[in-house]
Amino acid sequence: MLITIRPAVRLSVRTLMLSASLIAGGIAAPLSARETARPGSAGAPVAAPVETPAGPTPAVWGDRPEMRSFVDRLMAQMTLAEKIGQLTLLTSDWVSTGPTLRAGYKEDIAAGKVGAIFNAHSVAYTRELQKLAVEGTRLKIPLLFGYDVIHGHRTMFPISLGEAASWDLEAIEKSARISAIEGAAEGLHWTYAPMVDISRDPRWGRVSEGAGEDTYLGSRIAEARVKGFQGKRIGDTDSLLATVKHFAAYGAPQAGRDYSTVDMSMRELREVYLPPYKAAVDAGAATVMTSFNELDGVPASGSSFLLTDVLRKEWGFKGFVVTDYTSINEMIPHGFSKDEKQAGEQAINAGVDMDMQGAVYLNHLAKSVAEGKVSQQTIDDAVRRVLEMKYRLGLFQDPYRFSDAKREKANVMTPAFLEAARDVARKSMVLLKNQNDVLPLAASAKRIALIGPLADSKADMIGSWAGQGSRTRPISLLEGIRARAAKGVTVNYAKGASYQFADAGKTDGFAEAMAAAKDADVIVAAMGEYWDMTGEAASRTDLNLPGNQEALLKELKTLGKPIVLVLLSGRPNTIPWAADNVDAILEAWYPGTMAGTAVADVLFGDYNPSGKLPMTFPRSVGQVPIFYSMKNTGRPYTAEKQGQKYLSRYLDSSNSPQWPFGHGLSYTRFTYSTVTIDKTVIRPGEALTATVTLTNSGKRAGTEIVQLYTRDLVGSVTRPVKELKGFQKIALKPGESRRVTFRVSDKDLAFYRQDMSWGAEPGEFELFVGGTSDLPVGVKFSLAE
Ligand code: BGC
User: Fold this and answer.
1) Do 707 and 579 belong to one domain?
2) Taking the CB of residue 718, how many other CB atoms lie within 10 A of it?
3) Helix 67-76 / helix 13-25 crossing angle, nearest 10 deg
4) Does residue 684 surpass a pLDDT of 90?
5) In which band, very low, low, confident or very high, does the pLDDT at 51 lie, cut at 50, 70 and 90?
6) In the predicted model, what is the mean pLDDT of residues 536-560?
7) Is the beta carbon of 97 within 6 A of some atom in ligand 1?
8) CATH no. for residue 537?
9) Which residue CA neighbors atom 2 of ligand 1 most closely?
10) Domain ranges, residue 552
11) Helix 340-350 and helix 376-392: axis angle, to 10°?
12) What is the number of domains present in the chain?
């Protein structure tokens, strides 16, 4: 028997469960035919319907044979207004992550105008809002709760760029897993992560949220994060739906200014920028978020090329697409839409299912359907995708299943989570320089001067997009170092300097800092950026240490004592003076809740640093964009041609970066044997094995990230001077050696050829193995026809 839910009937959750199961097991409604085709793009009123390739549903989504008929039944009862409600996502007023255009979300929920809410969490509040939806609306369709759980929810892990520096896929997956457990325990269903935007421009503040400059590393990390967030199965109450964002190419804004125009060749887009999104989709990401930028003149939220042709037709994505915050509305200032109504039509017809915070669908879509500008089928396809995700989450069975007070209590900031956060933080740190082995701190260093605006800061330690991470809970460097310092070691702290732009010329704290440092055996300077100087809307034109920090470093240098700079920031900074003048530099990013403990672990040598840069550090902003996989050009500036004119070079700077992608030192020394390959020629379908012997020739146990790069010497289009194709993390005891092998097949050599077909081309290649991307000598092999 089919239960029809009528407006006047108020059903309890139990009844809802009953009706849901009856509907699920009941009569299948006839599927509505594709009466009207889905318009393909703005200006093209009618185009072919979206045919998603019939590939398998990602295993993590679970097999739900009865779901289709359940959703059919439900949709058969929905009015157009109720359907549009399911495509509407509004923020609560708890947190603001963008401009607020619409208030009154509770009334909207009760009126059935909203399908999902973000920036609301906690068991109590999600229950309160869910109740409005399931008890106050005619069809009692539960809400979906989303939130930016990016690098932790309450237990904060290092910022995403920092985690990427660990190159540790297991640790990164675990960090996402724990974040999901914490978030899901507070009533959340959905995170707006992972952010997988490749970026080669450190001026852009959002580099802190991604995995850096490299497509291969970024793709592997994207998969790990999706797996971590979504866990074993969507619907488990310790999992969150993942959102791969921001689709697409948001990380390449002109001049590094956030939200700015993106324009690149199709080859660059497909080869460099799209693969991490694809990797996340293939790993089962349930949702995709559009980006703010335009691409080739079309804003992403109105791009049927991106959202339909690539995402659905080529990649077979079956989840739903959400916009970024008011990005449909923003198609008006972009100059792509004349008004909101047209913007909404362009967005839904391009393939946007859910409108985040713009209320454009809510206000205009019904009219667009009435006018025939948007087909009923297009609305139904989008609604189905949203309802199916709610079904998979089990919300029709129990809308409150993620909001469980016991789980909320038990699953937040547990000792095991904090320990995991400490572990990832240590793994993420990159030892950029260590002259005369000044690190780890010697036992003889009895007086440590800890100086700088980040030395006693808690708030900065968790960086931006820090979810519900407390800014008073993190362990500061001062606390961590004092707690670890042996008896008899004094730690003299002085703030000394400021990281605020406005304080650039000031010197008022210098005297205090000099007094704290004058009798020290070693100076540890904790400097970098204020936490909000990276993240969204945080682009810079100057990447130096802000404020008067460098000036203080110069003062401290006059004391003639060893200086260790602990750099805390969310992007590669330009620090040429420090690079030349301080003894050691440890890039610690924003390490998270356990910051001070993790930094102390590394400074005192309890943990031997193993991180490698996921992004090149330029010498100056003038070199940007600078990345390891650049092209050679027709006039490369090589060592043999030093000083010559008419070559691709700067007059006032070296071409080389301060530190390249893949760079990172250890307290021990790793030596690499010459690379050998078992075949010098491979044929299509074959692979060669490259072998290197890695030896820990130092005195401490350590971990090395062994990297494999290739170069295609001649192609139908020019190829980068190096491309990362694999890496392995190898732990070795002092004196220990290990043979490390990599398999390289023709698939690893594929690219978009001149005719834009994908595949390798026969010819000569070079292969490089080492502990950085800056490897001058490779071994040659060839791919035969
Ligand atoms: C950001 C997204 C984020 C969204 C919701 C936007 O401003 O670009 O990354 O997920 O806000 O908070």
Assistant:
1) no
2) 12
3) 110
4) yes
5) low
6) 98
7) yes
8) 3.40.50.1700
9) 324
10) 425-608
11) 70
12) 2
Q: Each residue of 609-621: pLDDT tens digit? A: 999 999 999 999 9
- Where do the H-state alpha helices sit in 360-453? 360-370, 376-392, 405-410, 415-428
CATH code of the domain in which 719 resides: 2.60.40.10
Q: Tell me the per-residue pLDDT of 561-589, one tens digit each, with 9 for 90 and over.
A: 999 999 999 999 999 999 999 999 999 99
CA of residue 163 to ligand 1 center, whole Å: 20
* pLDDT at position 49 over 90: no
Any atom of ligand 1 within 6 Å of the Cβ of 245:
yes
Q: Does ligand 1 come within 6 angstroms of the Cβ of 536?
A: yes
Catalytically annotated residue among 108, 214, 282, 324 = 324
Answer whether residue 670 shows pLDDT above 60.
Answer: yes
Q: Which atom of ligand 1 is nearest to the CA of 246?
A: 9
The closest alpha carbon to 230, from 290, 183, 162, 166, belongs to 183
Residue 698 in tokens: 């130092």
148 is catalytic: no
**What confidence tens digit (pLDDT) does each residue in 435-482 have?**
999 999 999 999 999 999 999 999 999 999 998 999 999 999 999 999
Q: Which of 119, 150, 192, 197 to mutate to test the pocket of ligand 1 (most atoms within 8 A of CB)?
A: 192
Do 571 and 441 sit in the same domain of this protein?
yes
Q: Is the CB of 95 under 6 A from ligand 1?
A: no
Based on the domain organization, do 443 and 528 belong to the same domain? yes
Q: Give the number of the atom of ligand 1 that is nearest the alpha carbon of residue 291.
A: 8
Show Cβ contacts of residue 732 under 8 Å, excluding neighbours closer than 6 positions.
Answer: 670, 694, 695, 696, 701, 702, 703, 704, 738
pLDDT at 26 over 60: no
225 lines ligand 1 (CB under 6 A): no
Q: Is 324 in the pocket of ligand 1 (CB under 6 A)?
A: yes
Q: Which atom of ligand 1 is nearest to the CA of 245?
A: 9
- Residue pair 774/662 in contact (Cβ under 8 Å)? The answer is yes
The token pair that represents 144 in the structure block: 């979906």
Q: Are residues 674 and 579 in the same domain?
A: no
In the listed set 608, 624, 640, which residue is the last one of a domain according to the structure? 608
CA 465 to ligand 1 center in whole angstroms: 9
Distance 254 CA to ligand 1 centre (A): 20
Question: Residue 659 in 3-state DSSP?
Answer: strand
Instruction: Provide the β-strand partners of residue 564.
Output: 524, 584
- Which residue puts its alpha carbon closest to atom 12 of ligand 1? 97
Residue 1, pLDDT > 70, answer: no
